[in-house]
């Protein structure tokens, strides 16, 4: 095991060790919480972080890579400065997420699944984000928004403006 890592910084290692107290038996149980910490810090999962995490947990890199490639949220590459996730499941569908999506696409210049040309925005359609009462719910980076409160482009512009 290396003592110094580029991406597995001491604060992330401290968090992993906290999780280890709860899940002391199998290092595989620490992979997902550790990936969340890496994602939280870097907004993506750098390729080298996978090898560093595997080295630290003493698991095979394919065990980490398998999880990263299975879950959309653990994306390898930062697509843009800001990541917008819009829920498309039934409650948000009934809450007219498509109208919200159209407005967001128009104001950001990004399209669902694609970044804007200026590199500021990436839009992703996702499954339930656990906030159905806010339908159509969406996230900008880690901030959760209630789409039902957005009545017009002006409301949305005020939100987007915080991220530019
Ligand atoms: S269905 Fe959209 S947040 Fe749950």
Largest sheet: 4 strands, mixed
**In what order do the strands lie side by side in the largest sheet?**
2-1-3-4
Class by SSE composition: alpha+beta
Number of helices: 7
Q: Tell me what the CATH architecture of the largest domain is.
A: 3-Layer(aba) Sandwich
Strand content: 5-15%
Roughly how much helix do the residues carry, as a percent range? Answer: 40-55%
Oligomer classification: single chain
- The coarse overall form would be elongated
> How would you name the CATH homologous superfamily of the largest domain?
Glutaredoxin
**Ligands in the structure?**
FE2/S2 (inorganic) cluster
CATH class of the largest domain: Alpha Beta
Number of strands: 4
Question: What is the rounded distance between the termini?
Answer: 40 Å
CATH domain topology of the largest domain: Glutaredoxin
Briefly characterize the structure:
The protein has 164 residues and is α+β, with helices and mostly antiparallel strands. 44% of the residues lie in helices and 12% in strands.
